Each structure stands twice: as C-alpha cells, then as structure tokens.
Amino acid sequence: MKSLFNLRFATISGLILLAALSRLLPHPPNFAPITAIALFGGAYFTNKRLAFLVPIIVMVLSDVII
Q: What is the rounded CA–CA span in Å between residue 7 and residue 9?
C-alpha cells in the first residue's frame, strides 16, 4: 500500500510539474495553467496539506525559472 501511495504522489506531482513548466511556453491569452495546477492539486491529493503545498512549491519554482 505504501508503494501505491508513492506512485500516486509521484504521478500527481509530475503532472503538476509538467503544467508548471507549460508556463514557460508561449500560450494563448486567457489561458491560465496556474489555475489548472491549483484545481488539479486540490482535487487529487487526499492529504490536504499536500494539496496546498505541492502546487504552491511548484509555482514558486517555476517563477524562479521565469
């Protein structure tokens, strides 16, 4: 069960990271990957602390790159 949790965490975190990296690409107006990151993280993480922290950390890291 522990490895299933780690696989789920890695998959969800990877998708959020991929969405954050999409901020670096040119995108159409009114397209907000930040909103998608926050909604996806809040909906799919079962731990509420992770649902809040992972999207915030990924967005901060992508801001550092930008």
A: 5
Take residue 64 and report the two structure tokens written for it.
């550092």
For the question of whether the overall pTM of this predicted structure is more than 0.70, the answer is no
27-35 average pLDDT score: 71
Other C-beta atoms within 10 Å of 11: how many? Answer: 11
Plot region of 29 (φ>0 → left; ψ -120 to 50 → alpha; else → beta): beta
Other Cβ atoms closer than 10 A to 45: 20
Q: Return the higher-pLDDT residue of 1 and 16.
A: 16
